[in-house]
Amino acid sequence: MADREIIIGIDLGTTNSLVAFMSGDAPAVIPGEDGVNLVPSVVALDEKNQIIVGNAARKYLIETPDRAVYSIKRLMGRGVDDVQEELKLFPFQLADDLQPGEVVRIRLGEKTFTPPEISAFILRQLKRNAERFFGAPVTKAVITVPAYFNDAQRQATKDAGRIAGLDVLRLVNEPTAASLAYGLDKKENGIVAVYDLGGGTFDVSILKLHDGIFEVIATNGDTHLGGDDIDNLLIRIALDDIRGDLGLDVSRNGEAVATIRKAVIEAKIALSSQESIKLDIDLPGDKRYRREITREQFEQLIQPIIDRTVGPCKQALKDAGLKPEQIDEVVLVGGSTRIPKVRALVKDLFQREPHIDLNPDEVVALGAAVQANILSGGSTATENMLLLDVTPLSLGIEVAGGVTDKIILRNSTIPASASQHYTTQVDGQTNVAIHVLQGERELAKDCRSLARFDLKGIPPMAAGMPRIEVKFLIDANGILQVSAREQRSGKQAEIEVQPSYGLTDEQVEGMILDSFDNAEEDFRQRQVIEAGNEADTILAALEKGKKSPAWGELTTEEKKTIARLEKMLVEVKTGNDYQAIRKSIDELNQATIRLAELMMDSAVTTALKGQNMDESNADEGPTAPHPMAKAEFK
Ligand code: ADP
Ligand code: MG
C-alpha cells in the first residue's frame, strides 16, 4: 500500500454515499467509524454551527429541518431557474438573496452553502473514513456520476471534490462503474443493461462491450422514482388506516410521521427477505397501530411504482436499436433492486437472469475503486482498458435565425471531438459570437445555454468568405471545450465551458482553503492522539518487561540503548509532531525485540514446566513489548 499511492473510489449518491478501495484483487467498501458502509447523503448544521454528516445528521431532518438537507445531488450544477421543479417536491431552503442565473445556495440555520459545498461535506466524511482506515492522508479519488449528468453537473461534482481536498482524477458514469465491479470488461463482447433503482432516482443504461472496451450506447430514466415513492405510499396507507381504524389524524404530527416512516422502511426492507411482516407502531395518546403485511400484498401495492421503470427501459432499448433478446448481461444497481419483485420485473424485461452477487447499493463504489486502481497503474489485466461513456444531450451552437446547429449528437461516445465550418453573414464582419448550447430542440432559446464567447479580430472580408472552424472536444470526464478558429487569418478563441451555473475558480478556491485547512489540521490532530496512545502502550509494556527475569539477560549496552530510546519517546510524546512520535516508537520497538523474544521464551519454558501459560500471562499482562506491528487504524 505504501509504495503505491492510494486512490479511492467514491459513489456520491442521492440517498447514500460510499467509499471503496482495491484490496488485493477485489474492491472492498471502507466502513465508517460506526462500522456501517453506507453514509446517508444528509448534511446538518448543529447548534454550535458544526457540520454533521450521515446517520448522525438524520435526526436534524426531523428535529430542526431548517438546519438539515438531503438529496443535494438533485441541485448539483443547477441554477435558480432550473430547480423550481425540485423545490415543489423537496424541502430545500434556498438563500433569500438569490439572483436568477446564480448558483443556488441552500440555507442551513443562518448560513448558506452551494450544492458543491454540501456535497464536499459528504466527500470529506468519506475521505476521513478512508484516512482512518489507511492511517494516512488520502488526496486522490475517482467519483461516479449518473450517465445523464450534463457538463454543469459534472463540473459541480469536480468542484465538490476540490473543495473537500480531493484531486478528482476521473468522473466515471455509474453504470460503467457497476459493470466494472462485475468484471464484465473481462468478457470480449456483449451488450450490458444496467438497471439502477435507488432511493429517489431511476436510471437505465445500455452498454456495449467490444474487445473489453465499454461504450454507453443509451441512457434513460426518471429523476423522481425510487424507494422514496414506496416509503411514501406505505406511509400514506398507514396514515389512512390510523385515521379510519383509530380515528386519529397524525398526518401533521412530524414526530409521529417520522416514527411511521422509520417503521415502514424497516418493514419494506424485511419484506425483501421475509414473506410477511407485522407493523406495530406506538402513537400519541397511548394508541397503537398494528397491521400485518404479506409480501404478496406489498407486491400488489408497489406494482404501479415499479411499472414506471418499464417505459424508460423500452425507450433505452429503442434508442440503442436493440431488442431485449440481444442483451447479454443485466446488472442490478441501487438498494431498491433488492426487492424480489423488482428483480423479477427486470428479468422479464431483458429476458436474462440479472447479476446479483454484489450488493446493489455498493456495486457502483466498488466499480469506482476498480477504476481508481486502473488509474493508479495497479491493474495489469485492465491496463489498456479505455472507458467510453456517452454524452447525454446533443451539443452545438446557435446559428443565424436563432437555430441550433448540433455538433456532437446525443449519446455520442466520449471522449469525443467534432467540428463544423461556418462563415460570416455581413460584409466586413470582424467578430463572431459563439453561443454554446445543449439540448435536442431546434431553436436556441429552447436549449440550455452553456456558454458564450466571441471570436474577435477577423480581418474584414466579404460575407461568406471567412472560414470559421468551430471545434467541440469532450474529455473523458465529460467536460467540454469549445474553440473557434478563422482558418484564413488563423485568429482563434476558445473556452473551457464554464457552465452557466458553475462556480468560478476563485469561488472554489475560497471554499477549499476553509475546509481543506481544517481537514489537514483534523488529520494531524488525530494522528498525534493516536501516536500518543500507541506510545503509552509500548512504554507501559516496557515497564512490565523491566520487571521480568528476561530483563536481567540483556547486555548493559542493550539496556543503555533502550533507556536512551525510552527517554526520547517520553520527550517527543509531549510534542505534537506525530511523525517524530512514530519514528521514536519504531526505534524503541526495534531495540526491544530481543527482550520480547526472551520474555516469550521464558513464558514458554514456564508453561512447559507444567504451569498454565494463560495464568502466567494473566500475571504478567500481555507479553509485550513484542515488536508491534504498525498500528492499525480501524
Ligand atoms: P441512491 O443511489 O439513490 O443513493 P441506494 O442505492 O443506496 O440509493 O438505495 C437506497 C434505497 O434502497 C432506499 O430507498 C432504501 O430504502 C432502499 N433499500 C435498501 N435496502 C433495501 C431492501 N433490502 N429492500 C428494499 N429496499 C431497500
Ligand atoms: Mg446510486
Indicate the topology.
Layout: E1 7-12, E2 16-23, E3 26-29, E4 39-40, E5 42-45, E6 51-53, H1 55-63, E7 68-70, H2 84-89, E8 106-108, E9 111-113, H3 115-134, E10 140-145, H4 151-163, E11 167-173, H5 174-181, E12 189-197, E13 202-210, E14 213-222, H6 227-246, H7 254-270, E15 276-283, E16 287-294, H8 295-307, H9 310-320, E17 329-333, H10 340-350, H11 363-375, E18 389-390, E19 395-399, E20 403-408, E21 413-414, E22 416-422, E23 432-438, E24 448-455, E25 468-474, E26 480-486, E27 492-496, H12 505-547, H13 556-573, H14 578-591, H15 593-608, H16 613-620
Parallel strand pairs: 1-10, 10-11, 12-17
Antiparallel strand pairs: 1-2, 2-3, 2-4, 5-6, 5-7, 8-9, 12-13, 13-14, 15-16, 18-21, 19-20, 19-23, 22-25, 23-24, 25-26, 26-27
Helix pairs in contact: 3-4, 5-11, 6-7, 12-13, 12-14, 13-14
This protein binds adenosine-5'-diphosphate and magnesium ion.
Structure summary:
Helix 4 (151-163) links the parallel strand 10 (140-145) and strand 11.
Task: Note down, in words, how this protein is organized.
The chain has 634 residues and is α+β, with helices and mostly antiparallel strands. The protein folds into four domains: 299 residues, Nucleotidyltransferase, domain 5; 80 residues, Alpha-Beta Complex (Actin, Chain A, domain 4); 107 residues, Substrate Binding Domain Of DNAk, Chain A, domain 1 (Sandwich); 114 residues, Substrate Binding Domain Of Dnak, Chain:A, Domain 2. 38% of the residues lie in helices and 24% in strands. It contains 16 helices and 27 strands. Strands 1, 2, 3, 4, 10 and 11 form a six-stranded mixed beta sheet that branches. Helix 5 packs across helix 11, helix 6 crosses helix 7 and helix 12 runs antiparallel to helix 13. The chain is globular, with a radius of gyration of 30 Å.
